[in-house]
Amino acid sequence: MYFEKPGKTNTAKTLELAFARGKELGLDEVVLSTSKGDTAYQALDIFTGFGITAVTYHCGFKEPFKAVMDPDVRADLEQKGVRVVSATHALSGLERSFFNKFSGAYPVLIVADTLRLFGQGTKVAVEVAIMAADAGTLTGKDIVSIGGTSQGADTALILKPAHQTGLFDMRIREIVCKPRQF
To answer: Model pTM?
Structure first.
């Protein structure tokens, strides 16, 4: 399915479509991006029978030494069975530091920009799958991976996850939904 525009207005539909396709394929793991927990809470109501991994920004992303997700929200999600990962962005991380200081082209940033050719949500869905794999929350089987543009969710992929060290072993099997315009 293609949404006319990106953004959080597509979150509920993205989650519903992703769940339906994941169920149809016999999958039982979902990874999703969430900054403050809103998308993760919505997923809890939809992804019954799935292991949910919610990936949020690394500490210091917006403000030095501060988490973006409130610790109480994180604890509540974890108490409800969601695995919450807060980690350095797999598709920028330390390279962003070099870019900000010295400019230039850096391989990981090129990969991120290439994925953005399909939309920001596609880049995010790939990135959070890598981060979840590196955090040890996945089994290595195909998963549903959900990302978004700015806020909320607007992109869902079916993919075979991989760690950062095996990025090119990742396989994007299907695009369940994404924005047409971005």
So the answer is: 0.94
